TrEMBL record, chain A:
NCBIfam families per record: EboA_domain (NF035938)
Phylogenetic placement of the source organism: Bacteria, Pseudomonadati, Bacteroidota, Sphingobacteriia, Sphingobacteriales
Record-linked InterPro entries: EboA_dom (IPR047715)
Name of the protein this chain belongs to: Uncharacterized protein
TrEMBL record, chain B:
Keywords associated with the record: Hydrolase
Organism name: Sphingobacterium humi
Gene3D superfamilies: Metal-dependent hydrolases (3.20.20.140)
InterPro entries: Metal_Hydrolase, TatD-like, UCP005295
Entry-linked PANTHER family: HYDROLASE TATD
GO MF entry, a single one: hydrolase activity, acting on ester bonds
Transmembrane segments: none
Name recorded for this polypeptide: Hydrolase TatD
Length: 281, 326
């Protein structure tokens, strides 16, 4: 079954008969002449779904949705993404049409458009758009690009990817929701993270525990000194376990006073997957 | 906008201390406020005073725009960034989209803006067409006022009408007559910036009457109290029209407090500061009104989760009394 069919099945389970009929008609109209009908259908969909339905949340097993990672999407967002999946045309016309949708989009439409990036034809056309989405200042729109989105991990070059990860930390996104986070980790990102760690430390502000995990292979002496201090002061057990992972990677470079106090803690270290799982919860 | 800056303060009446306890637990709508020109402090103050929903009509930004793209980006910000910004402070943001009267006078540009409007009026967060109407009462203003009334009629959405500062009574009556001529239902039209001189004409014709509580140039709220005492609360609503001039974003809750102090019944105050605006702008077509109560009752210090309940505690508070910034 194609992704759009799986999505449709899950979507229609949530909707009333009236809403389903409307969407079926709409799909048919889009197939007949999308240039004539799509904008109206897409833009006014919020007025076609009941309050309860449009805001209710839906998740789909990743195996059913292929490139789409549908985790706590509103039904409205999923319905719009499904509609976008119905669009097909030659490259130039397709790009022009989708670009216009972005240009005139409201907040919720933008969320759907960015969430749909992995589903769009001609992925190479949407790389710049994806970067633009990461620059967007609307939290929920950023979230639609950064979290649970396979497009950025599969299409962004390293520099843009690294900017996205840093932006995710700066804007308080849920880091573990980033698809491809560990697969695309790289030394240039670690260097930028270390710089960020220094800045946070100078400002005497919190340091996100995932920063240590991502940069753990590339921590210079100064960073290790900060890590030792922060570990000793950390109260939250899940954060502490993450910091311990970064310390373990650098065990031979740690200071003697630190090791004297904490050496035994390395004996009960859990596998990183378990630590991340516990932190996620 | 302020044009009477040199007014003698002693003519402005005896100050009454700002005491908002009397309106604690009440919820308000400000149906005309230009938040793009306001700071985050204002959003926090609005939330604290019980303003849970604001309506931002598209307007003149203080100087004329010279190209279509600045209009487009402005409309876009009203359904995008500004809406999100408000939500961060626990406030639901809606807008009306339109070509304002001043800029209607740049006809070549106005033509292009008219083509742009249909792209925006159906968007999430857009309640209707506004603020449109007369300023200098020129032929061009009339032309685009009429064209936008047609658009509103076709889309079946409310219209928010700006009435002129100069030659106000004539301009107000003319605005209503034109709306009737185009077959608009007065129930769907909010005539704004009324005064003692215009209110009767507006109510007699069945239109909604908006009053802008704006220091120096528009209504003062003591006068507003008298108007509600004279005409009752039906079809009347107050707003701040706060913008980039000396204006007061708390005009609605302050006026509510003053009305209660002056003996106007709570139900009447509730009508002119909340429910009439909700009805006139058909807000229930856009959100579940019960969610506004949820916002009011939500613990402002609770962490923000989900889309439906907005809480004002999401954004950190600065200690304004400290010279330390950290």
């Amino acid at each position: 079954m194609k992704t759009t069919e799986k999505v449709m099945e899950a979507l229609f389970q949530r909707l009333s008969m009236e809403e389903i009929t409307y969407l079926n008609q709409s799909a048919q109209q889009i197939e007949e002449d999308y240039k004539k009908h799509f904008v109206r259908i897409f833009s006014t969909l919020n007025r076609r779904l009941s309050f309860a339905n449009r805001e209710s949340l839906i998740s789909l097993p990743a195996t059913d949705s292929a490139k789409l990672l549908i985790v706590n999407w509103t039904v409205l967002k999923l319905a719009r993404v499904w509609l976008l999946g119905l669009l097909h045309d030659e490259k130039e016309a397709y790009q022009q049409f989708i670009d216009k949708l972005f240009e005139y989009a409201d907040m919720q439409e933008l969320e759907a458009l960015y969430a749909a990036l992995p589903l769009l034809d001609y992925p190479e056309l949407w790389v710049e758009r994806c970067k633009e989405g990461i620059r967007n200042n609307i939290g929920t729109v950023q979230q639609a690009v950064i979290e649970h989105n396979t497009f950025s991990s599969s299409q962004l070059e390293e520099e843009a990817w690294n900017q996205m990860i840093l932006k995710a930390f700066f804007t308080g996104k849920n880091i573990l929701n980033i698809h491809g986070l560990f697969e695309r980790n790289n030394p240039a990102l670690a260097a930028a993270i270390v710089d960020y760690i220094y800045e946070r430390d100078s400002a005497k502000r919190d340091i996100h525990p995932m920063l240590w995990v991502l940069a753990k292979e590339a921590l210079p002496e100064r960073a290790l000194g900060i890590l030792e201090e922060r570990y000793a002061a950390e109260q939250d057990p899940h954060n502490k376990s993450l910091l311990l992972q970064a310390l373990a990677t650098n065990k031979n470079q740690l200071s003697q006073p630190f090791m004297q106090l904490h050496a035994s803690e390395f004996d009960q270290i859990s596998p990183i997957a378990e630590v991340l799982e516990a932190y996620k919860k | 906008m302020c044009t009477e800056m040199n007014r003698d303060l002693s003519t402005m009446g005896k100050p009454i201390p700002l005491e908002l306890d009397v309106i604690k637990g009440m919820k308000f709508v400000d149906p005309h406020i230009h938040m793009v020109s306001r700071t985050t402090d204002d959003y926090q103050a609005l939330f604290d005073a019980g303003v849970l929903l604001v309506i931002e009509p598209a307007f003149w930004v203080g100087q004329p725009r010279t190209g279509l793209d600045t209009f487009k980006d402005y409309y876009s910000s009203l359904i995008g960034w500004e809406r999100f910004r408000a939500s961060q402070f626990g406030i639901r943001h809606f807008c009306t989209i339109g070509l304002n009267s001043r800029e209607a006078n740049n006809e070549p540009l106005a033509e292009q803006v008219m083509e742009l409007l249909p792209h925006f009026i159906y968007k999430e967060g857009v309640l209707g067409i506004g603020e449109i109407g007369f300023d200098d009462q020129t032929a061009a203003e009339e032309k685009y006022y009429r064209a936008q009334l047609e658009l509103a009629k076709e889309a079946n959405v409310p219209v928010q009408v700006h009435t002129p500062h100069r030659d106000k009574t004539r301009g107000t009556i003319r605005s209503m007559e034109i709306a009737l001529e185009h077959g608009l239902d007065p129930q769907m039209v909010i005539i704004d910036h009324n005064s003692e001189e215009t209110v009767k004409d507006v109510l007699d014709r069945g239109f909604w009457a908006g009053f802008t509580i704006y220091p120096f140039t528009k209504m003062g709220n003591e006068r507003m109290v008298d108007i509600v005492k004279t005409y009752g609360p039906e079809k009347i609503m107050v707003n701040s029209a706060a913008d980039w001039g000396i204006s007061d974003p708390l005009a609605v809750p302050k006026t509510a407090a003053l009305m209660l102090q002056k003996g106007i019944a709570r139900e009447s105050v509730e009508m002119v500061t909340y429910s009439n605006a909700i009805e006139a702008f058909a807000v229930s077509n856009h959100i579940d009104l019960a969610s506004l109560n949820d916002t009011l009752q939500a613990d402002p210090s609770a962490k923000f989760e989900g889309n439906t309940i907005l809480r004002g505690g999401q954004q950190p508070r600065l200690n304004k009394g400290s010279i330390i910034i950290s």
